[in-house]
């Protein structure tokens, strides 16, 4: 369906679908369309970059609007239901405070993380021009790699898509494993704490 939107609506369809969908699924196909002379490769990269950057910017602005105080209040009142403590928020914000620019830039290459890095950037907040610059650079570079890959592979672009699917699934599995280990540790601490 997203591929049809890109095929029918061209650059506008690509930019719109990039607001919500991962570039790993769209950009190789758009690169293939450029290979077939249905789209221009530079136009594909620009449209993907604009859509991806806009999607990340929306998340940043939402986090900035909500603010750290409300998020902190959520952690205090309901965090325990998610096995989260206020100190976890402090840890995330501290790490982000030290390495924020690198996370915003490099996070664009990692499924799931790509969306999440916009939230602490908005909470701290990272100054908007800096956030925008690093998001634009990271998103643009990743979109270019994917589009050029689809362009060079031509009709074999689905091979790139299957490799990227494996890459995304691996990263997602590692994130789920880390969350599982974190939850297990918290349950263990709660059980041991209640026995004392």
Question: What would you note in describing this structure?
Answer:
It comes from Thioalkalivibrio sulfidiphilus (strain HL-EbGR7). It is found in: Cell membrane. The chain crosses the membrane at residues 12-33, 39-63, 131-152, 164-184. This is SNARE associated Golgi protein. The chain has 196 residues and is mostly helical. The chain has one domain. Helix content is 84%, strand content 0%. It contains eight helices and no strands. The protein has helices at residues 2-18, 23-35, 41-78, 86-106, 113-116, 118-123, 128-153, 157-195. The protein is elongated, with a radius of gyration of 19 Å. The model has no long low-confidence stretch (mean pLDDT 76).
Computed structural class: mainly alpha
Number of strands: 0
Average pLDDT score: 76
- Main β-sheet, in a few words? none
Number of H/I helices: 8
Which H/E pattern describes the elements? HHHHHHHH
List the SSEs and their pairings.
Elements lengths: L1 H17 L4 H13 L5 H38 L7 H21 L6 H4 L1 H6 L4 H26 L3 H39 L1
Membrane topology: Multi-pass membrane protein
Protein name: SNARE associated Golgi protein
Pfam family, one: VTT_dom
